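pinging the channel bc i need a second pair of eyes. not urgent but kinda urgent?? the chain im working w is below, pasted from the shared doc
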Amino acid sequence: MFIVMIMNEEWAARIRDFFRFSREEMISLGVVILIGGFLFSLRFPGEIFTIQSWTYHFILAALVAAISIVIKTASQKMQALKHGYYAEFHIVWIAVIASLLIGIFSRGYLPVLFFGAISTSFMVRQRLGEFRYGDSFEDNANLILNGITTCLTLATIFALGSFLFPDSYFFTTGIIFNLVLAACTLVPIPKMDGLALLFGSKFLFTVGVGSVILYSLLLLSGTKIGLVLAIMIGVINKIVSLLWTA
C-alpha cells in the first residue's frame, strides 16, 4: 500500500507540473472538434432543413465532440505522464480532409473520424532509473488503448443519459460519436494511432477490436440489460487495471 501511495503521489506531482495543452494542440483540437460537430450535424431529426435547425444540432454535436475529444486526449496525456512520457496530439490533415469528403459525399450516413494521432517523448529526468533503452512500442500501444477505453466509457455515460432521456439528440449523438471515434482509432492506416497499436502489441489491438465490438452491441441494443452489462464490464475492467498497475 505504501508503494502504491508513493506512485500515486509521484503521478499527481507530474500531472500538476507537466499536464498542459500546447497552443498548437489547442488549435488542432479546436479544428477537429468543429469538423466532428459538422460531420455529425449533416443528418439530424426532421425532414425539413432550416438554418436554425441545423445550427442548433451543429452546436449540440460540436459540444459532444468537444467533451469526447478533449477528455480522450487529456486521459492519454495523464496516462503518459504516469509512465514517464510527454504526450501530444497532432492533427493529420490528409486524414481530416478524407473524413470531410467521406462525410459530405455520404450526406452524413458515414461519419468517419480520422483526425490525428498521439505522439510521445521521454521525460528524461523522470525516466532516470526506470527505463533507459529507448522508446517502448508497448507503452505507446497501451496509451492508444487507453484512448479507446476512454471513448467506450464516455459512450456508456452518454448511453445512461439516453436511457434517462430517450428522445435526447445530445445523448444519442454522444453514444454514436464515441463508438465511431473508438472504431476509427483502431483502423491501422499510416500516421494514425491504429497502426502504432497494431505494431506495438497485436494482443492489445485484438483487445481493442473486441472491446469496440462488444460495447457497440451492448449500447446500440438500446436495452436496459445491455447498458447494465456495459457498466459492469467497465467497472470490472477499471478494478483489474488498478490492481494490475499496483
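so The radius of gyration is 19 Å. and The first strand starts at residue 85 and ends at 91. — does that match what u expected or am i reading it wrong
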